[in-house]
Design brief:
single chain; monooxygenase; globular; 12 helices; FAD/NAD(P)-binding domain; alpha/beta; D-Amino Acid Oxidase, Chain A, domain 2; 2 domains; five-stranded parallel sheet; 375 residues
Amino acid sequence: MMMRIAIAGGGLGGLTLARILHRHGIDTVVYEREADRSARAQGGMLDLHPESGQQALADAGLTARFRSEARPEGEEHRILDPAGRVLVHHRPQPGSFSGRPEIDRGALRDLLLDSLPRDAVAWQRRLVAATPRPGGGFGLTFDGGHSADCDVLIGADGARSVARSLLTDAPLSPVATAVELSISDAERRHPDLAELVGPGNLWCIGVRRILSAQRLSDGGIRVGISLPADDRWDSYRSKRALLDGLDGWDPALTALIEAGDGPPIPRLIEVMPTGTRWDHRPGITLIGDAAHLMPPVGEGANQAMLDAAELAAAFAADPTDPDQAIRAYEEAMFTRIHPIAEMCARVQAMMLSPTAAQDIVRFFTPRPAEPAPVD
């Protein structure tokens, strides 16, 4: 009898897992809380790393499709100070996929959805409870009264994971406030801002404040402001509040806030403790943010997709022994994630430190090669 695998969460990790399992002839159902694929915007660009996100797409057989959607030019990255002076300007090799090409999160999600059978995703299914069954597996209860059973539950349900609570009570801790705005049709409506941002990413680094912007494939600009985490995070719901916090900055930069299509949207950035582990439990495991919620500094989606690829490979190696597959996956994942989570924590702290500009310039500036020893 084929094991019934349920994936809670239809984000990039959950969909990657479903796709690779499907390639191996292992059917699964992804339960997603959104009403359909177009229910909400999916956010900005992602840079997919060769050793993680791109490797997972290769395992999924989607490299060609990824390259047709990705934007190598999106790797361009400029770092400025509040006066508008350029501190770092990284220009990628034109047309090269050897680095970390950018792709819109929505385009990547559509790519994965299009690779799955129509019935692989059950929409409008927000998991609210998973109850162990006497003979193994779980009974799943969804918002609205729907229910289902599974032999194996994979929690890919993000920062507020319901599945996680069955394995660990690791607390979430705030590390920053992130405020987002969007500027649509920037090339036509705000050509000066489109030129300022360029085809990729722009960061302006002040003292414990970062103003960022990234160009999207539809011509829009996604604007973000990173601030320290405190009990005032919910107060940044007006452009005026943000502009007051950037007093003295070059108006050409703060114009990114003024041009936002709507009011700012603030949210608290939380993380799990570095080194979080849990004792193995039969029939359940976690991937992505549900397993290792880290600061959003470029690793989250990549590691979620690699989690999915490694877990799928473990299941495919012996579909008759899912618990051994889960054990093998978890031990390898814990080992892999620990140094990455530590690095993400250091970068997050560095970005909002009083010396962030100097620290980040050093971080992005290649060290000169050591001179060859003289005989």
